[in-house]
Every structure is written in structure tokens, then in C-alpha cells.
Amino acid sequence: MAIIYHITSKDWWQKWENVDYYESPTLHQETFIHLSTAEQVDGVLARYYAGQTNLLKLHVNTEALTAELKYELATNNELFPHLFGRLYKEAILKVEDIG
Q1: Does domain 3-97 fall into CATH 3.20.170.20?
Q2: What is the pTM of this model?
Q3: H/E element holding 34?
Q4: CB under 8 Å to 23, separation ≥6 — which residues?
Q5: Among 36, 39, 64, 83, who pairs with 91 as Cys (CB 3.0-4.6 Å)?
Q6: Tens digit of pLDDT for each residue in 48-80?
């Protein structure tokens, strides 16, 4: 089983508490949900979430995903996992409070 990660705010996560799926704001803006490998999480937190609190890290089982997952080249020349559709909660193994 491969595990990838998604960072979100607690406030945004709560908007999805009464449904069986999750959608990030980028799903509608960019057509995919940004995810990271374990090695990429610290860099993502430093680049995009520096100084922010109230964050969660979703641990996602790639084998349970129902939407298409692609690893695509980002502006920093790293391959990042992108999910092209809803993230159903059955694929989320853990919701970790990271501050």
C-alpha cells in the first residue's frame, strides 16, 4: 500500500464533515487535488503554509482512490501526485492534526 498526503485547514475540512468525500479548493480551480509524497510534505509546508496554524495532514491510501491519480512535474522539477476527482473518505487512513 502506498500512502500520500494532503494538507488542508481544519476549517476547510469541517465543510466536508457531512459527506463521504472531500474536495480541495484546487479541484475546481485547477481540476485536481494537490497531494505529496512523504518526502515532499516538509517542503510543501515550508513553501505554502509557513506560519499557518490550524492545519491537518490527510494520510491517503493510493490503492483506495477512485479518481485518476497522476504524478506530474511541478515548477520545482519534482513529480507531485495529483488527484483528478473527489477524494473519498474511505481512502483516508488518518487525519493528523499538525498545528
Answers
A1: yes
A2: 0.94
A3: strand 33-34
A4: 16, 33, 86, 87
A5: 64
A6: 999 999 999 999 999 999 999 999 998 889 999
